[in-house]
Amino acid sequence: MEQTSGMLRGTLCAPASSFLSRVESRQANIAVIGLGYVGLPLVLGFHAAGFSVIGIDVDADKIAALAEGRSYFRHISSHRIAPLNRERFKPTTDFSALAQADAILICVPTPLTKHLEPDMSFVISTVKSTAPFVHKGQLVVLESTTYPGTTREIVEPILVKSSGLRVNEDFFVAFSPEREDPGNARFEVSTIPKIVGAAVPEGLAMASALYKELGTRVVTVSSPDTAEAVKLTENIFRAVNIAMVNELKLIYDAMGIDIWEVIDAAATKPFGFMPFYPGPGLGGHCIPIDPFYLTWKAREFGMTTRFVELAGQINRNMPIHVVSRLAEALSSRHQRALNGARILLLGIAYKKNVDDTRESPSLVLIELIESRGAKVDYHDPFIPIIPVTREHAVLSGRRSVPLTADELARYDAVVIVTDHDDVDYSLIAKHARLVLDTRNACRRAGLFTSNIVKA
């Protein structure tokens, strides 16, 4: 279902109608909370569309960078930040700036706890900080990926309790899931269709009109819960299919069959097949995490998500398989134990051509390999220093080593974990004693030397 702002204009209440007028005349002030991989592109999109934008983040370093016209992401150049008109853009750590906003878009992390349950602390603290500045006629949109019911059960009650206003009468709430794909130059906020769900027609019309100004197609659904479920379904689809090919990789490898060759051939079928590719484990803030949000919520209804949980188990076990394959290859080819070996990991980012380490399987691999007595270094052209992470804080501060012939010769094996384009794979194949390729990067580069082993 698609909707334009004019469809319900005649039946809307005064606050909603006034909001639509301000949006259409570009007089609306847009506030984005959380200036990360989701929030910053929204800031750029709405600013480019002619709106005044308030950017809020608790990270003072990000605010300082934006104030100086600098980007803190590799895939978003400073050339895109520098032109931000200071008269129409205000980066700040001060939530009181929200009092001037007509629309507030919340884009904060939703990680998992150690027990694979939703960690809603960022959403809750952000909404609590937002609530004192909510006013009549305002629209609040949650974009953070979460379980169905979050908008109704967490966001709305906090805003109502603190503001004293009536939700979906005085102010309005909607959910619109982020669909960013960092590093993918083919898609940006203006070309990715926007899902919008709200509890009342006014909220739906307001959110639809707002996102339409980005120049993208707006697809409306019947409720915030449905919109939340859409995002989970998209990510579960990927997680389950990746788990399937990861399992097939193990089976076909035992049979002497190359899984990548199988997938490439199967992908020639013009219908009924969509290629997914195996790897060393899942990374990023979405695919490894979001399926467990549904698993957790399903328990409330007495349901189990066996298929989803099995996929998660398979994907989480892939780093263990890589380490086993590494130990086997060292032993069979060089009569070398993993204990005491020197290993170079190629890539710390969770996927190629980005500087994002969130949930990266490389971090898990470093700890697993070193727990077996090996010494691990890494090379990543996008990540010179490993940043602080919640689960792997002990690794923070490690620095990328140069990728040279002399450096490669120092290691017993090179493990390709992230297949960045800006890497000389022929150099690796020529000078590394052993190459364990988890991404099929060498074959794609036309390299078939005897020291290359797939994993």
Structural summary, described in words:
This protein is of the alpha/beta class and 455 residues long. It has 2 domains: 9-227, Rossmann fold (3-Layer(aba) Sandwich), CATH 3.40.50; 237-454, Rossmann fold, CATH 3.40.50. The chain is 38% helix and 12% strand. α5 (121-130) runs parallel beside α6 (150-163) and α8 (224-254) packs parallel to α11 (306-334). The model is unreliable at 1-7 (pLDDT under 50).
Summarize the structure.
The protein is of the alpha/beta class.
Strand content: 5-15%
Question: Per CATH, which architecture of the largest domain?
Answer: 3-Layer(aba) Sandwich
Estimate the helix proportion, in percent. 25-40%
CATH class of the largest domain: Alpha Beta
The CATH superfamily of the largest domain is known as: NAD(P)-binding Rossmann-like Domain
Order of helices and strands: HEHEHHEEHEHEEHEHHHHEHEHEHEHE
Largest sheet: 8 strands, mixed
How many beta-strand segments? 13
User: What number of structural domains do the residues give?
Assistant: 2
Provide the CATH topology of the largest domain: Rossmann fold
Tally the helices: what do you get? 15
Q: Give, in spatial order, the strands making up the sheet with the most strands.
A: 3-2-1-4-5-6-7-8
List low-confidence stretches.
1-7
Query: Please, what is the average pLDDT?
Result: 94
Terminal Cα span: 44 Å
Radius of gyration: 24 Å
Shape: elongated
Structural class: alpha/beta
Topology, please?
Blueprint: H1 14-24, E1 29-33, H2 39-48, E2 52-56, H3 60-67, H4 78-81, E3 89-92, E4 103-106, H5 121-130, E5 139-142, H6 150-163, E6 172-175, E7 194-198, H7 201-212, E8 218-221, H8 224-254, H9 259-266, H10 290-299, H11 306-334, E9 342-346, H12 361-371, E10 375-379, H13 405-409, E11 413-416, H14 425-431, E12 435-437, H15 441-444, E13 452-454
Parallel strand pairs: 1-2, 1-4, 2-3, 4-5, 5-6, 7-8, 9-10, 9-11, 11-12, 12-13
Antiparallel strand pairs: 6-7
